[in-house]
Design a protein that fits this description.
mainly alpha; single chain; two-stranded antiparallel ribbon; Farnesyl Diphosphate Synthase
């Protein structure tokens, strides 16, 4: 077992990860390169890569090399980046800044931004289909594909975004709001933590359910923390104007139920996630400390 702290391994993991993505986003000479340039702009914009790191930490938890799951790590980040490009469009959240830079539709144009999202999503699935895992672990890669499509479709991220738009200027109850959060944000975080584990043939239904619960609780806490940052954060730190949710009359956890209550809810969800991970731990063959460390980072971050 590698006793080095997970945080110390992050630079090495991300170096290989970034290289892989850059190789796939190089424009072909002799043709119009604007789409590839816009894709590159949208992916390499200072993102924290939290979802790929969850994939790598989950690989450690089941005792396999992180590089084995490079394709799932790249795929989930490409899906995430595509969702941000589309969310920023005037027809959606109409944002001007993303991580301190003009959003893709402003840096290029709206049509290009739409195509960027389409192309990034297609590339995510292409990477998975072409990965050696499709030959060595065909059943596992099929489960990974299913998990990712579930997470980003009408019952996941896309449906959550639609629901988010519908809830503007409304006051949903806590269950409704958290259900929307679970779809919009939590589903992709859950998929990130779960995908490597789907390569295990001998994981029990109970352990799999516990891992899903871990991902769900971390994902929900992550979104509530995001809502808090929009109230308490600094624009220079979070990379976008604060107060934008309130200005758009979006339904947010602290806006509806209070700042202290939101912080208390994050603690409850974090503790519940840790408990779920402990339930799954006896069947995992590796080190879960990376997942534990990331859960802390996702729920306590300042940007």
């Amino acid at each position: 077992m590698n006793t080095t702290a997970f945080a110390a391994r992050i630079p090495g993991y991300l170096d290989v990860f970034e290289t892989q993505l850059k190789e796939r986003l190089v424009a072909t000479p002799g043709i119009d390169t604007q789409l590839k340039e816009a894709m590159h702009y949208s992916v390499f914009n200072g993102g924290k890569r939290l979802r790929p790191l969850l994939v790598f930490a989950a690989a450690e938890a089941i005792g396999i090399e992180a590089q084995t799951v490079l394709a799932p790590a790249c795929a989930v980040e490409l899906i995430h980046c595509y969702s941000l490009v589309h969310d920023d469009l005037p027809a959606m959240d109409d944002d001007d800044l993303r991580r301190g830079r003009p959003t893709t539709h402003l840096a290029f144009d709206e049509a290009t931004a739409i195509l960027v999202g389409d192309a990034l999503q297609a590339l995510a699935y292409q990477l998975l289909a072409e990965d050696p895992l499709s030959t060595t672990h065909p059943a596992g890669i099929l489960k990974i594909l299913q998990e990712l499509t579930d997470a980003c479709g009408a019952d996941g991220m896309a449906g959550g975004q639609a629901w988010d738009l519908q809830l503007e200027k409304q006051t949903p109850n806590q269950d409704t709001l958290e259900h929307m959060f679970a779809m919009k944000t939590g589903a992709l975080i859950r998929a990130s933590a779960l995908m490597p584990c789907l390569l295990m043939d001998d994981l029990s239904v109970e352990a799999l359910q516990a891992l899903r619960a871990f991902g769900d609780d971390v994902g929900l806490a992550f979104q509530i923390r995001d809502d808090l940052l929009d109230v308490e954060g600094e624009s220079e730190v979070i990379g976008k104007p604060t107060g934008s949710d309130a200005a758009k009359q979006k339904a947010t956890w602290p806006g509806l139920f209070g700042i202290k209550e939101a912080k208390d809810r994050i603690v409850v969800l974090h503790d519940r996630a840790m408990s779920a991970l402990e339930q799954a731990k006896p069947e995992l063959k590796g080190d879960v400390r990376g997942l534990q460390w990331l859960a802390n980072q996702l729920t306590q971050r300042d940007h």
